[in-house]
Write a structure and sequence with these properties.
With about 110 residues, the chain is mainly alpha-helical. It has a domain of about 80 residues. It is built from three helices and no strands. Its main location: membrane.
Length: about 110
């Protein structure tokens, strides 16, 4: 089959006619269908992306909640330890045994103004 010759003319209007004649014509319905298909594909990709992001954020939230619970346990242990070390009878016992301190008699107490 011989190659089809496209007439060449020097007028600007006829320069693109040979090229466009080789392309098939698309009906508006077909163009609309292709655009709709691309919109559905884009929407599906958007759903996949947002689902992935949502799962990542939920994972980070759960890690933060776990860390918060661990910090609350540590804080409770710290408060318990602090109350143990600051107990009145313990302080009194250490003052008497290690520092040789005692409660003075009422006659030995001097009031300073």
């Amino acid at each position: 089959m011989p190659a089809r010759k496209i007439p060449v003319s020097k007028t600007p209007a006829s320069l693109g006619q040979g090229f466009t004649a080789a392309l098939p014509r698309l009906s508006p319905a077909r163009v609309g269908l292709m655009l709709l298909w691309l919109a559905v594909l884009g929407s599906a990709l958007g759903v996949v992306y947002t689902t992935h992001q949502s799962r990542l954020l939920v994972h980070q939230l759960e890690l933060a909640r776990k860390e918060t619970a661990e910090q609350q346990v540590a804080w409770g242990q710290y408060l318990l330890e602090q109350s143990t070390w600051a107990a009145y009878h313990r302080i009194e016992h250490l003052a008497v045994s290690r520092l040789d301190m005692y409660v003075p008699d009422t006659a030995d107490i001097v009031m300073v103004d």
